[in-house]
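Let us work through a complete example step by step.
Step 1: write down the sequence.
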Amino acid sequence: MITIGITGGVGCGKSKILEYIKENYNCRIITADDVANRLKEPGEACYEPLIELLGKKILDEDGFINKKKMAEVIFADDSLLEKVNSIVHPAVQTYILDTKETESKAGKYDYLFIEAALLIECGYNKYVDQMWYIFTPESTRIQRLKNSRGYSEEKIKGIMDSQLSEKEFRAGSNFCIDNSGTLAQTYKQIKKKMKELESEDGRK
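Step 2: predict the structure and record it as tokens.
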């Protein structure tokens, strides 16, 4: 099983690319955001530590952590973000690495794709066989985030400034997918790369 990290700045189009990969290749896809949300549920690794840090005011009526309430508490105190990350990021990494080991032993999939904006920062290079960076021009990403998520320019700029630069993403990756054109052009690049991997791995 070949393990591939998929990373890129906010609004670069990771979801569409992963949809294409899932439909066309024998793979399992893990997204860090989905894992983090699961680990915040009652009984999971991050639930109690986050309540202890942020208080029960982040819970909704059903006892689940409410993302909006949690965000409001963190927004009111910048120092809390680092503490939250120190709880969530290691737990997510442990879950992902355990899943990688399980799937590798099971032998069901040819590929495991791990998607997150912070793969390079969190040191996933040493856990994946390849790191892929999805490049999309900043202007396109800004417009996309305005249209799809209703973000203000100020919010978008704040998120982008907190992430790696294009130069840093490229330096930390083995392969760059140029997602600045049509989806057909993007998919063509993926298809070519996957054929190369299959050839190197002796599958085709």
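Step 3: interpret the result. The mean pLDDT is 92.
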